[in-house]
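LOG
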Amino acid sequence: MKGNYLAYILIALLFSSSIVNAQTSNTRFHRAVSNSLPADFELDIPHLREHIYNGIPDNLKEEGRSDRSCFRFADQSAHFVSRVTSSGYIYSDWPELEEYLNKILQKVMPDELKDDSLIHAYVIKDGSSNAFMTPAGIFYMHIGLFAEVYDEASIAGIMAHELAHYYKRHPLKRFMLAEKGEFRQGIFFENKNLSKFSIANEIQSDSLAMHWLNQSGYKVEGLREFFLASERQYKKWVKRSSRYWEYEANTHPLSSDRIKAIDKFIKNNDAYKGENFLVSESEFKKFKEEAKPEILNNFLTNFSYSNCIETAFNFHIYDPDNTVYIWYLMESIRRKCYLNIEMWDKNFITHRYYKGVEQEGSGEKEQITAHLFEKFDLEIMGLKPTEVINMKARFYWADKPRFKTHEQAYNFFYSVSKQLGEPECILSNALSFVDNDSVRNALLTEYIALPNALYKEYAQNLLDGSIFDDLPDKKLIVLSYSEVMVRQGYDDILIRPLKTDKGDIMEDLIKNSTDNYMDRTQMYLPNLKKDRLNDFHILAELNIFSGIRTFAQGTKTETHILDPRFWNAFKDFEVNEFEFIDCWYFEARKVDKTKEGAEALIGSNYETILSQPNPNRFLTGYISSVRAIEGGVMKVKYYKREKPVSKKMTGLEALTNQIKFLLKKKIELAEEYDLRYGE
């Protein structure tokens, strides 16, 4: 559990003089988010589908099965691109970054693709390091990639590699082969054909990317640097695994082999030369810095606390005065330990790593028991070796360790935050005291007195013991996800609510299913993305949280303690519980191998499918809730296994009954859990 307040004073005495100047006390921790999704992020699916289908070579569109497969591929790809771009998880309100990346994309674009009007780059709100290109020509880059690149040439190298996949139509070829059953695998073994196919595609894309980079004027070493970064991340991942295995190529060639190929290319091109920057070095550096809080925020709000801790610490050791990184360190430690109190005593960062040796042929590895500062482990840190020299906080490894465990680290960073004057760290510290009201209340009082505190109302209610008083005994039922799938022979075809549906059928479904509950209102979550994007994000986050398992070890966990924003959400929606419902409807039909059959089915909509009789139909459902009820449990969830639908019902009637059943079951479980586990 969280330690004694006096420990802060003792640890503060150990604090290095390397950290001396505070930032402004009203530091905010991520970009403000627009509350609406721009109209141009709602991509036209038929136009995308036609673009993809028309771009497929005629020799692949043979009569019958192949033409149908090409059409289905185009449709699935179009809907995927549309869904991602309009998901609310694209930076739709950061046009400067989008424009900058598309300038790099245009620089590296080969002549063969210059006329493709749909090629465009977007940035996804995801802290991990990844990028991919779709068959529609849309390039998606995770914001987390900025943590692993150090110049434009590396971004250009990634783009060139993904452009090569697009140009060589690797996703289409994989889809077509999968349709023919080439990649089917048994229960106990992987398909070697898939591995060979994937590796061959990667090698081909690497080769084209080097050629295009050389043509563009960017350094080919940019691609090399990215593979080095990928290798660092892979080694971290391997070191976090408790199982032992040798490095081997699976779906991708080994990074070491790819790097050798790049070195060979450079050596064999005597006239080779290139630049690290062709658009703007200053803009790159600006966006790299602006990306860091976004990376951390995405880790934190996706409950990826361990990744947030490690990334924030890496940022911190290069910029130890930055209170943004300190706050993310404190909050990710606090939340991680709140959901599993055993983590307080675990070693900071190293607790989830293993030694790279096998224990007596068991296949298991020995867990690392040393703390982070016993030695500087470059693999655990995942840092670029040439950047280590720029690290400002080398004192962590130079003298007596400032801390070892999560609890000691938390206390240490709090002492730092006090010197730097960050008010939100005071609230974080207050919330870490779950069993000591006197210390918590003293910290809350200190926090409330600060003029630039972000959560004054919440803190005051917590201090007054009235945190539940302002929340009415009402619920919001959120239909968060629905899927209607039709199997036509061997093909699974996803049916989507078309624009003509306007989401009304889903709004009506959830309303008609639960309207008899006077204490509940209803909502279809996807409809919020257009002009209530902030509400969409907080509900989507709560939905994810509702399914996460917690390990409280006898200590009652409460939603508002985990994150004050959640209490604000309850208050803003005027409820004390959010109930999330997901439904899956599956229907089997006879074999149809024609393109026309696929077109007809794809052109249908929810209303059409759910109103037609069919004997072979099945339903699956899931309900979960997040609650702010005094004396009640924090979460309730229930999964209903797949069941056949009565032949007497329409699909819509079956879904209505499904939702009614799920809600009734959840209410029963909540009453049972509150009696058993509540206070």
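LOG (cont.) second protein
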Amino acid sequence: MNPVDSVLPFRFLVLLGVVAAIAPVTAHGLTLELQRRNPATGAITLQKEDVDSKRVGVIAVDVWNYHWCKTATMRVDAIVPRMNKALDAARALGMTVMLCPSDVVNNYVGYPQREVIFLLPKIPVPSLVDVTCPPAPDAGGCACGRERCAGENFGWDGMHPGLIIGESDLMPDTQAEVYSICKQRGLTHLIYVGFHTQACLLGKSMGLRGMKSAGMHCVLARDMTDAHPGYDPSRDFTPELNTEQVVEHFEKYIAPTISFEKELTKIGKWDTRWVVDPVRIAPWGTPMRPHLFEQPITVTLAAPWQPGAEIRYTRDGTAPSTNSMLYTKPLVVADTTHLRTAAFRDGRTVCLESEGSYVRMGALPPAPDIAIGELSPVRSVGFGHSYGEKVRYSANTKPPQKDKSNRGFDLRVNRTTYLTGMGVHAPCALIYETKPEYERFVALAGADEYLISISHGSNLSQYPSIVFKVFIDGKESAASPVMRVLSPAWRFDVPIPAGSRFISLVTMDAGDGSREDFADWANAGFVVRK
């Protein structure tokens, strides 16, 4: 699923303020079916409430383009197609759509949807409702299981590129801004969609708690939210279960929920034949952000909004079909695997295809007997403009640095500092002569972590994506998967055939450009024959 290419032109038209309305606006009487739970027993109660659609606002919170947890990132990706359908219908019904990316809202300066916010009247926000409740379930924010992602990478710099921004949408950031919109437009009800439910939807300034305390009728769309996730297959704790628990907590203590899909279906604004949901995977590695592991892992597949669907999958990278293997229980993945999965009902596709990328790591290599920093390369080229064998290095980039990162700091990969190695910027190649006594080349290679030391990598640390390769006499002998900031270092232990002449250590961008592709060859060198 990759909606980026089809959406970016739309976003640029929005920026220019020339987007036509998606659909004519018609007010509509809604009868919302509000679901609550008894705090003591958990028993569900349903209540109907009538409201004019023009008095409803829909607030999408933190639909970011990145998260420090790769599975959480992909779970946002999974819900955006469903969310787009709902927001499109909301606009057509005259609802006010508010897109609230909080941390990165100021990256939307120049968008009319943001600039108009500063014309709002300043209205004091009352405190009318005391919103107190027990702490919401918190599973830690990472759904990658034992190989938990690091929590320091704040690399998001905008909303998901597939999220459609409507001409009439607004981008408020604070409780005061949302409240002013509500008063100006006569809104009485707010429907919340977005991520991560118990953290952002509840805790952010414009979130559900804040607006309920100001007297707004707040509702959570349970089919268009996802918890700050967790995953522990040893006790059958999945991200789906985690989200269910958080939604139940809201229904008991904080606010009622609705199924946005069902509400729109009742009034003919949702076609149940739409295929908008991909199969969800946990942990969810992708080719551009693979899940690296040492011991066998358990992979769970789910289609929570397609009950009764048959989930089919392949492990060899081929497209899934109705004849592929049927998912009946969690999968054990013991080796490098390219998983592809889709869901079907009565022979018809009901879930978009998903893919999972899992790469098993080799054993830790020994320390080298001869570090590459002790040797002089016969060729050294890096990120810049080349004139014959001379390189005019790009701004903020240096020639390969001995025992330091390319920026001149410690070599750091996955929170570990290394004393020896070479710091480079991709693309780069270092070529060394091999000697008869060289038995193996060894190294730990990864994305340098300097960005994390500055504001947790805010806005930038999603971008480094590097592939390391080793060539011997022009033939590729070993390669890493795509390496990202705070990924474990890739382990190279490459035999050197007798009679070899040259070894080339290559760093490449991963096909998405070289932005911030600072890379470290740590503990790199040669093991000699004994």
